[in-house]
Structures are given as C-alpha cells and as structure tokens.
Write a structure and sequence with these properties.
The chain is α+β, with helices and mostly antiparallel strands. The chain folds into two domains: 80 residues, Glutaredoxin (3-Layer(aba) Sandwich); 118 residues, Glutathione S-transferase Yfyf (Class Pi), Chain A, domain 2, CATH 1.20.1050. Helix content is 54%, strand content 10%. The protein is built from eight helices and four strands, in the order βαβαββαααααα. The chain has a four-stranded mixed β-sheet with strand order 2-1-3-4, covered by helices on one side. A hairpin with a 2-residue loop joins strand 3 and strand 4. Helix 1 runs antiparallel to helix 8, helix 4 runs antiparallel to helix 5 and helix 6 packs across helix 7. It is globular. The two termini are 30 Å apart.
Amino acid sequence: MIIKSNLIIWGRPAALNVQKILWCAQELGLSYTNNVAGQHYGVIKEAHFLKMNPNGRIPVIDDDGFILYESNAIIRYLWAKTFPSDCTSEHLQSWSHQDQWMDWTSATLYYPLFREFFLYFARTPPENFSEAKVSQLFNSIEPLMKIANDQLGQAPFIAGKAFSMADIPLGVLIDKWEKIDQKKSNFLNLSLYYDRLLERKDYFNCVAQYALNAV
C-alpha cells in the first residue's frame, strides 16, 4: 500500500546516505519525489539548497514544507510519523534499542573506519590496489564487523526479531561490505543477514542494485 504524501527527497540515488532515505520511504510505503542532487548533478551549492541545508550536503527532505537533514534524523522522523506508537513511553525501550544501533552504525562503525574502507575499494581501480593497504583496512574494520556479526547471531535483525528502522543504516553498509568482502572474512551471520535483506524488494531497488563504484 502506497501512502500519498508531498515528500521530496533531495540527493543522488547512488549516494550511501541517500539510499538510506529512499529505502526507508519505500519500506514505509510513502510516495515521494526524488530531486537528484550532489556531486556531478550539482544543486547543493545553490542558494535555494543552502537555505534548506547550510552544510550543502545530501540527503535533505521537504515534507510538505518541513525541512530536515541528517540521514538518521530523517529515518527517525519518517518512522515516527508512520508508526507514532513506536516512540511512546509504552515502547520506549524498544525504540531506544533501535536508536542505539542506528547511532552505533553511524558513529562507531561508519566513521571513520568503514568510510575509509568503502571509499578505497569504491574509488581505487583494482589494478592499483595495494596489498598492504587492503590488509590494513580489513584488520581495522573486522573487529567492528564482528560486533555486528555477533549481534546478528542472537536475532535475525540488528535490534531484535523484527525488521526495524535500525536495520536501514546498517543494511546499507552491509551491502557495501558484502560486495567488497565476498564472504572471505567468514562472518556467516552478516552474510545470512544480507540474504534476508535481499528478499526485500525495496532493499534491492534502493540499495543492492547499485554497483560499488556507482556515483
């Protein structure tokens, strides 16, 4: 079921943080318009965009005049708007647990280690790979990937038995991880999690269909 809305999502679909918002909107069944912006598409340094986000970064949403940036804030907003009971005092612990994993994904896993890891493989031609650099990157990121792998050994999704908003930031990164690692690190729970996500058509359409080096 598609919920009609006046939601506008600014950003290029191949951008990691924009994929989070497009996927979130589709999981929630929200109709939206994607105004492509960023990198070679431009727009983000124009006055009208900087009025929405003075940082000149994507994603940004315009929800019938309500402007919001920062991808995790957008996910929380869209989720709470669609499922308002999820963030009430009755479900506070569940909401906070999801929130914890969202923050862990962005503040502990992604920056700076996963970002460096991802950008190296996405932007470096394979013929220019340095064996020493590749080894260093894997050694740096694997302890954090093990934390997610161990958590996913306890439940099918990162915050428990059911798919939640917490899976959106992590799911986008796991797509990049699986395309780079190709199961060489033997994190079985991460691979099974990726397989579960791939069963969701919105995940494929908004995230997995894009090549690692897509811009």
